[in-house]
Amino acid sequence: MSKIKRKVIKIDEEKCTGCGLCVPDCPEGALQIIDGKARLISDLFCDGLGACIGSCPEGAITIEEREAEPYDEAKVMKNIVKAGKNTIEAHLKHLRSHGEEDILKQALDYLKDKGIDFPAGDYEERKENKHEHFACPGSAEMSWGNAAVKKEVLPAGKAGIKSELRNWPVQIMLANPQAAYFRGADILVSADCVPFAFGNFHQEFVKDKIVLVGCPKLDDIEFYAEKLAQLFKEASPKSVTAAYMEVPCCWGLVKGVQEGIKKSGKKIPFYAVKIGIKGEEL
Asked: Judging by beta carbons within 10 Å of its beta carbon (0-12, 13-18, 19+), is residue 199 exposed, middle or buried?
């Protein structure tokens, strides 16, 4: 089979500890732990989109462009179908989030040809309307100063803690990189578990910052990095802080933010804060 130049993952064996956290996050089945290290078993199965990157706590997985065998969606789907419905769904979501419409169509056609019962229409509809979230009233851009937030009036004996949030939406997936409130701001990029674990989240982290949240385990870190790079390039923020949990998969958020800063070409002060699952700042 002739090779072509395309993007595939690269694993740094010195950094890889063989923990295996990357394996389940590759629905294509391109990764296995062999001789104590994560290995790319075949170029045929790697789509080069990097779903596994955010799962690696050591930062051992990156994307490189090199000569490789062409990606084969039919062979990938053959493996994925064996793994069951959840893996099929993860693969389709992965392709859709990257706008890989041609490959997504191949995957859906495979399911239809094999007579596999799956709600393919949901993915076809979303593919045609992949930017529909920008039209959602709940994701309309809004910002306000602290003076606009009135102190909550509560019954006697109950203390009120005001919100320090100053912008909407907060989800990275919904954020508009060109929104005016990002320009020259101090930006907080938080893993979405942090506010639940850290009791004083608003006063210590949100105050005087523009907030973005996301999940490095469930979302696409490569997408995050690209979007943040565009945002940082447009906004030239004063600083960026990443707040993440102590669990290994959450380190992907830090890597995604760092990659976004690097790709933006901007010199931006960067800070990282790790929170323990019991709520302590580590």
From this structure: exposed
Q: Which helix (H) or strand (E) holds 232?
A: helix 221-235
**pLDDT (tens digit per residue) in 222-268:** 888 999 999 999 999 999 999 999 998 899 999 999 999 999 999 99
Which residue, 187, 162, 178, 156, is CA-closest to 271?
187
Question: Is-contact 194 245, C-beta < 8 A?
Answer: yes
- Backbone phi, psi, residue 94, to 5°: -60, -45
Give the single-character DSSP code of 171.
Answer: B
For the chain, which domains are there? 4-132 (3.30.70.20), 137-275 (3.40.50)
**Spatial separation of the C-alpha atoms in residues 282 and 279, rounded to whole Å:** 9
Q: Residue 191 and residue 171: Cα distance in Å, rounded?
A: 10
Helix 101-113 crosses helix 120-128 at what angle (to 10 degrees)?
A: 160
DSSP string, 14-41: TT-----TTGGG-TT--EEEETTEEEE-
